[in-house]
């Protein structure tokens, strides 16, 4: 099971977001959500928990069927919904940074941290995390783009393809934007990283999930919530 990152937008924020369904890029199709990272957005990002351990559909219904929000699967948890990596909710540290070695995508170093710190959203190499002021943070992996370069371990010819969800940050005219992407069809890590680097010019991007627990919902386009998948945590901003 994995955690989920959710972002809903207030009416005043609607002009600051873009959603694209089934965007074709090279040999794959992608769903894309972009939001301007100003103070009105960053101060509303928080983590909430699916404490009832119910399906996506049941959980979202409890939030209000008419609410507009964006959601994407985020940090890795164990079978008891305990985070495997760094997790900070509302300024409270739930789990420390995980620098251990292990098997699976999470442990493909470097992995990374998506966080809100001093009113700024950042995606950084987990090895560089030392914040004492982060109010929200999730550790996941691997990093897809690191300082404008694709993760050196990715093989462009890899046959390891899966549905993938990720997040990236790019700057335009001196302002920062968060871009979230889910592949509609299976892609390799190299293919997935390329859309962040080449299409959206992200300086840093992070893989949030791959496979069955990869879930992303656009605010107005996609309302097909799973009646089976259970996600433990969400980063959330309600409309």
Write the layout of secondary structure elements.
Layout (H helix, E strand, L loop, with lengths): L1 E6 L9 E9 L2 E9 L2 H4 L3 E4 L6 H7 L7 E7 L10 E3 L2 E4 L16 E6 L2 E6 L8 E7 L2 E4 L2 E2 L13 E9 L2 E9 L5 H11 L4 E7 L5 E2 L15 E4 L3
Parallel strand pairs: 1-17
Antiparallel strand pairs: 1-5, 2-3, 3-14, 4-17, 5-16, 6-7, 6-10, 8-9, 8-10, 11-12, 11-15, 13-14, 13-15
Estimated radius of gyration: 16 Å
Shape: globular
Distance between the termini: 26 Å
Structural domains: how many: 1
The number of strands is 17
User: Could you tell me the mean pLDDT?
Assistant: 87
Structural class: mainly beta
Lateral strand order in the biggest sheet: 2-3-14-13-15-11-12
Catalogue the unreliable spans: none
User: Helix tally?
Assistant: 3
How would a crystallographer describe the biggest sheet? Answer: 7 strands, antiparallel
Percent strand: 35-45%
Helical content class: under 10%
Order of helices and strands: EEEHEHEEEEEEEEEEHEEE
């Amino acid at each position: 099971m994995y955690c989920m990152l959710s972002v809903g937008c207030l009416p005043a924020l609607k002009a600051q977001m873009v959603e694209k369904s089934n965007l074709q890029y090279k040999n794959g199709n992608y769903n894309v959500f972009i939001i301007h990272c100003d103070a009105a957005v960053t101060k509303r990002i928080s983590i909430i928990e699916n404490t009832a351990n119910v399906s996506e559909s049941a959980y979202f219904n409890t939030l209000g069927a008419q609410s507009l929000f964006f959601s994407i699967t985020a940090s890795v948890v164990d079978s008891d919904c305990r985070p495997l990596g760094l997790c900070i909710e509302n300024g409270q540290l739930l789990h420390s940074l995980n620098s251990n070695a292990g098997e699976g995508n999470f442990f493909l170093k470097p992995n990374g941290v998506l966080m809100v710190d001093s009113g700024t959203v950042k995606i950084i190499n987990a090895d560089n995390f030392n914040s004492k002021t982060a109010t929200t943070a999730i550790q996941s992996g691997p990093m897809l783009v690191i300082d404008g370069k694709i993760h050196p371990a990715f093989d462009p010819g890899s046959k390891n393809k899966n549905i993938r969800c990720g997040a990236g940050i790019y700057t335009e005219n001196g302002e920062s934007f968060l871009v979230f992407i889910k592949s509609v069809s299976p892609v390799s890590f190299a293919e997935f990283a390329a859309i962040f680097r080449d299409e959206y010019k992200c300086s840093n991007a992070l893989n949030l999930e791959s496979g069955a627990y990869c879930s992303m919902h656009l605010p107005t386009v996609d309302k097909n919530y799973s009646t089976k998948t259970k996600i433990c945590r969400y980063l959330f901003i309600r409309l």
